[in-house]
Design brief:
alpha/beta; disordered N terminus
């Protein structure tokens, strides 16, 4: 057993790799909104998955109890993470596996490279893994002269098109069948020139292309959906069976997994095997579930390695409000119901993790002071649909508001003089601190009516408020305030008008 200390560090260690956006979300989203084909593809796909999910979830009378159980298990795991990691390591190594600890993306990439070279290989097959996308493993291996071939169909499409995934579960969700056929014709050397956009023909072309890789590869790289601490077992769930080929045929298997994927026991896995397929693909049961515990002589890979990745997870765990983002089981249900994601797509988020969960997970892993990621908590309408859909009840809207406050506080500390927002908030705080001050401020309402003009709409505001009116109008203020209406109807001052100011109230206390 290693002597790695797994307690919370005094100073958070933030993650790197493909977690940092290269441009702010508003800029990227504005560009993606101009792609009509993208919006059409996304709208069709997310509505289809969303409807399937609603049907299968409605079949379970205890769905809410399952969500509560999933949330409670994850909360317990985060509270006991150091203890569970040590238990898992002991059981995994006792059955022939080898554990490698990686503090960040650079350490994880270097470890995987060394293991591949030790196996005497210069190419690997991969089963879909968010962790390896997060650390930019494919790009790193290419720089080192090692070819990595994605075997998940959607990942293969994205890789062949030299594109980036835009969805956690369906990385090629932004492409339609005709676009996929064109990619295959262009990038697959031996593909049938008469290939059509029929799904069965496209799947057959991919199968023929991949079969040679499966049979020749000496090394496979995978992710993991879950890890059972009690037995040292790893689990991968997938829909095509390609993952199972990767996990069983090569001599060496290298898995890269975030430390938060642990579950204490097999009984806990039972809960998630009901929550995950229904929330992700709208299926009652997952088509292919692969489980492996160490090495079995004469059967399967004889060299089994696991790279346990931190890369900012300890920093997220140290955030009391945001740590529940680590409960995520990567089902993508939040993305399929998000009105912002449906219109902008995953590329606008920049990071490996798009959608509502990415808007909180990426800034937590990198730190909110990561320049472009600071805009991600604002990529939401705060409608709450993501919270309702999340199978483990991550309160994404609450964490978004928390991170927005963190962002404002971090930028406030870097300015020598107060900004427009600081002055405006200070003035609002003063006015709203006492009923009489608020009544005085309401005397200015006629000015708002005057600015609105005959069409009763304010179309342009000055200063930082101009951002609000770039895409919407503000209705003209009402003819009278609530305070005036109350006075006329009840013949006395409005509630709170004569109340002491907050400052005076505190002084009395």
């Amino acid at each position: 057993m290693s002597s790695t200390y797994l307690g919370m560090p005094g100073r958070p260690v933030f993650g790197d790799g493909n977690l940092h956006a290269t441009e702010a979300f508003p800029t990227a989203a504005r560009r993606e909104l101009g792609n009509a084909q993208l919006r059409a593809n996304l709208g069709h796909a997310t509505h289809t998955i969303r409807d399937k999910r609603l049907r299968v979830v409605a079949e379970l009378p205890d769905w809410e109890e399952l969500r509560d159980a999933g949330s409670a298990i994850k909360e317990s795991v985060m509270a006991r993470l150091p203890e569970l990691l040590e238990e898992f390591e002991a059981n995994f190594t006792a059955r022939g596996g080898k554990i490698h600890w990686a503090r960040d993306a650079a350490e994880a990439n270097k470890t995987v490279r060394d293991l591949i070279r030790d196996a005497g290989a210069d190419e690997v097959v991969k089963v879909k893994s968010m962790a390896t996308q997060e650390i930019g493993l494919n790009e790193y291996l290419e720089e080192q002269g090692i070819a990595a071939f994605e075997t998940d169909l959607a990942e293969l499409i994205v890789q062949l098109d030299h594109d980036k995934p835009s969805h956690i579960l369906v990385p090629a969700i932004h492409k339609n069948r005709t676009q996929i056929r064109d990619i295959f014709l262009r990038e697959m050397p031996d593909v049938d020139p008469g290939l059509t956009n029929n799904p069965a023909r496209l799947a057959e072309a991919a199968r023929v292309h991949l079969r040679r890789k499966f049979l020749s590869a000496k090394v496979a790289v995978s992710g993991a959906n879950f890890a059972i601490a009690k037995s040292g077992t790893l689990a991968v769930v997938e829909s095509e069976g390609n993952g199972r080929m990767c996990l069983t045929l090569p001599e060496t298997l290298i898995t890269v997994m975030g430390v938060e994927k642990l579950l204490p026991s097999w009984q806990d896995l039972e809960v998630f095997m009901q929550l995950l397929p229904r929330s992700s693909t709208g299926e009652r049961m997952n088509p292919y579930t692969s489980l492996w515990t160490g090495v079995t002589e004469g059967d399967g890979p004889q060299n089994v390695h696991l790279v346990l990745l931190d890369n900012g997870r300890s920093a997220a765990l140290a955030d009391e409000m945001g740590r529940s983002a680590l409960h995520c089981i990567r089902c993508s249900a939040c993305m399929n119901v998000c009105p912002v994601y449906e219109r902008t797509g995953g590329h606008a988020y920049g990071s490996t993790y798009p959608g509502p969960i990415g808007a909180i997970l990426s800034p937590l892993l990198t730190g909110i002071t990561s320049e472009e990621n600071a805009s991600l908590p604002y990529a939401s309408s705060l409608c709450g649909a993501c919270y309702d859909a999340c199978p483990v009840k991550i309160n994404i809207p609450e964490i978004l508001v928390h991170l927005r406050a963190e962002d404002v506080d971090s930028r406030r500390g870097t300015r020598k003089t107060p900004g427009q927002m600081d002055v405006a908030m200070k003035a609002a705080s003063w006015a709203m601190g006492a009923g009489r001050r608020m009544a005085l401020a309401e005397k200015a309402l006629p000015l708002g009516k005057l600015a609105a003009g005959p069409d009763r709409k304010i179309k342009k505001l000055p200063g930082i408020a101009a951002g609000w009116t770039q895409s919407r109008d503000i209705p003209a203020p009402p003819a009278q305030s609530f305070r005036d209406w109350w006075g006329k109807e009840r013949g006395k001052s409005a509630p709170g008008e004569n109340a002491p100011t907050i400052t005076r109230q505190k002084e009395k206390e």
